[in-house]
Amino acid sequence: MQIIDAQIHLWAGASAPPHHWRAPYTVENALRDMDEAGVDRAVNCPAIWDAGANDYVEAAERYPERFATLGRFPLDDAADESLVDAWLDKPGMVGLRFVMAAPETAGRLASGTLDWLWEAADRRGMAVGIMVMPPYLPAGRSSTRSVPSGCSGY
Q1: Beta bridge partners of 132
Q2: What pTM does this model have?
Q3: Which of 34, 51, 32 lies closest to 42 in space, CA to CA?
Q4: Residue 80, strand partner residues
Q5: For the chain, which end, N or C, has fewer CB atoms within 10 Å of the first or last residue's CB respectively?
Q6: Is there a contact between 148 and 114 (Cβ–Cβ < 8 Å)?
C-alpha cells in the first residue's frame, strides 16, 4: 500500500506564519522527512506566504515518482480558463488550490464570478482544492454545487 501525504508546503525564505516551521522547507527536506516517515509520495500545495512557491513544480520535474503539485494563480479580474491550461501543462501538476480568506475573494465566490473555474475543472476532470473561511462556507458550497458533475471544494 502506498502512503501519500496529500498536503505539504515547500517554500523558501523565512516568512512562514508562526504555526509553521520557520526555516525554508525544501524538496530535499521533504524527501528526507518522507523517507523517515515511510511516505511514498506527496502533493505540494504552494505556500501562500511565499510568492515563489509555485516554482516548486520543479519537485515534480526532478522526482515525478515522489511529488505532484496543486498550483495557484490570482483569482482576480484577469483570471480565465487559459490560466488553467497553462498550469496543467506544467510537469506534475494535478490540479489547483486556492485560499479564499480575503473578503473580496470570498465575495467572488458568492457572486458566481468564479463559476468559470469550477466548470473548467469539471471539463478537465481536474481537482480544485479550496480553503474558505467559516463565514464564506455557504457561498463556496453553493458555488461549487452548480457544476454539472457535482464537484465540490469540500
Answers
A1: 100
A2: 0.79
A3: 34
A4: none
A5: N
A6: no
